[in-house]
Write the structure tokens for this entry.
Amino acid sequence: MFPTGLRQSPIGGANNFEAVTIPVKNVTASAFVQYGIYQLDLAQGDSDVTTVQLALASAIAVATAGIATGLLCVVQSAIPAGGIGNAVISGVTKIGTIGTTDIAKMDFLKGVNAAASAVKGTAGTDRCHWIALEANATDTVVTNILALMTDCFGRI
């Protein structure tokens, strides 16, 4: 139950494209959707998660404050309320997006308050956590695309 994807590349450095996955516990009352964006709960309010031997991080719905200063992740499968699953915190992963503003390859993506999907972000203005590796112009339904998660803190 320890993070995966921390292997070294052939040249001896970390592979920035390989997904780094950690186990997370859904500590909300709602199910998480596959490839949804969630926030790691640094307060660790859930007593099950604060038990060190479980090696778990707790995850909650994304909030505005979490986008600005928190750690975001992308869950790799649906996780029921109170359930445990895996989440990517860095590297290439599928991610749920809404193309309200068309997303092109190499666009920056940002999280949205109370949503489990990403939208097109503006570098230098928004805290962006991902770079789109595929396009999405569908604005009425969540579409899963490949994206590079630069890191779980995001960049402005």
